[in-house]
Amino acid sequence: MLEIKNLKKSFSTQEVLKDISLNIYEKEVVCIIGPSGSGKSTFLRCINLLEDVDSGSINFNGIDITSDKVDINKLRTHIGMVFQSFNLFNNKNVIENLTLAPIKILKMDKAEANNLALENLDKVGMKDFAYRSVDTLSGGQKQRVAIARALMMNPKILLFDEPTSALDPMVVGEVLSVMRDLAKSGMTMIVVTHEMSFANSVASRVIYMDEGMIIEDDLPEVIFKNPKNEKTRSFLANFI
Questions:
Q1: Contact present, 151 and 189 (Cβ < 8 Å)
Q2: pLDDT-derived band of residue 240, with 50, 70 and 90 as boundaries?
Q3: Torsion of CA 175, 180, 182, 184, to 10 degrees
Q4: pTM above 0.85, yes or no
Q5: Quick one: which H or E segment has residue 56?
Q6: Greater confidence, 107 or 68?
Q7: For residues 128 and 156, what is the distance between their CA atoms, to the nearest angstrom?
Q8: How do beta strands 14-24 and 2-11 pair?
Q9: Which sign, positive or negative, has the C-alpha torsion 34, 79, 50, 97?
Q10: Residue 211 backbone phi and psi in degrees, to 5
């Protein structure tokens, strides 16, 4: 589904991604862990073309999406993203946040978009909040709305950039529960996270990144019980 080869990215003189190569397969849940500043979020932003890559290729279903010929808006209907800071429009209500992109980009009829929005809000337990103003919601509720919004475009893959790190610990569980349900439904997901129990129990594979490189890529039971690399062991010791 997603084939990444020799991906490199720098900001000024700082090399953030150093020759990253990785394959993501359909229905996989790949969790990426590692210290802050290791390039995890930049990696996701490159996949969704929020950042230009310096070199290398990203093939999505056989198409090199780093090509100048790629329609970025069309691509983002297939590769959805959920951000740490929600990125909702606070001046709109919940259902308006969900229907904006389908109406503008997919030219969806408003009534159809509203019905689809209610279906997706129901999936994340937020249907009763459809006409509430976004700025009245808790952080956990906002993140569930953000996930429902990402589902509106019927993506083939969802990227999650530390979706719980800005949340009160009391509401982290409700967001992780929604993500577990998505994984069970067969959604292909790449999740940057510090939630080790989630990665251990839900991921198909866990990747440890450090200093812009993939240090280790293996099954969760290997990464968490018997990591091969000393850097991985040292990092995980902070969570025991």
A1: no
A2: low
A3: -170
A4: yes
A5: strand 55-60
A6: 107
A7: 27
A8: antiparallel
A9: negative
A10: 55, 40
**If you write DSSP's letter for every residue of 67-88 in order, what string do you get?**
STTS-HHHHHHHEEEE-TT---
Q: Give residue for tokens 């959604």.
A: 187
Residues 184, 175: Cα–Cα separation, whole Å: 14
Q: Give the amino acid at 16.
A: V
- In CATH, the number for domain 2-78+155-237 is 3.40.50.300
The Cα 49–Cα 83 span in angstroms is: 14
**Taking the domains of the chain in order of start, what are their residue ranges?**
2-78+155-237, 90-154
> CA-to-CA distance for 216 and 206, rounded, in angstroms?
8
Alpha-carbon distance of 192 to 163, in angstroms, equals 8
The beta-strand segments (E) located in 79-174 are 79-82, 157-161
- Answer for the pair 176, 198: CB distance below 8 angstroms, yes or no: yes
